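Justification of computing resources. Each target in the renewal requires a structure prediction run like the one illustrated here; the chain below, 126 residues long, is used simply to show the kind of job we budget for.
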Amino acid sequence: MAELDTYAEAPQVADSLAQLRNIGWIFFPLNDQNGELTELVGAYEHPGSDVTDMLRLRSIKECLAQRIVDYPGHGGGVTWKHEDDLFSCVNELLCLPPPDATSRLVLVPAPRLWTPDRTRSPLPLH
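Resulting structure tokens:
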């Protein structure tokens, strides 16, 4: 992950991530093959819902926030997204309405896993 531009940003970064952690977000570090931190990923699964909010932090200035819905049997996908710096992404996430008040229109569908068609009979072996 890119270094902070100034040490003055460090407390702001900690405060921004703490705001999310305090409401139930969990964070996972992603490391490269040398063990260097390349990205920090955070997620919040809304209780009693099929909606997850997600944050991907590559640097202070390169951040992605998304709301993702899972439609069982249909894959689901991204229903909201915001790309900007960390502070903007955290602010936008904190301003999102609850999942039941937001659009469930999928902007970017989740990739579909191919599964065999079980309604067809198998080919006979000769």
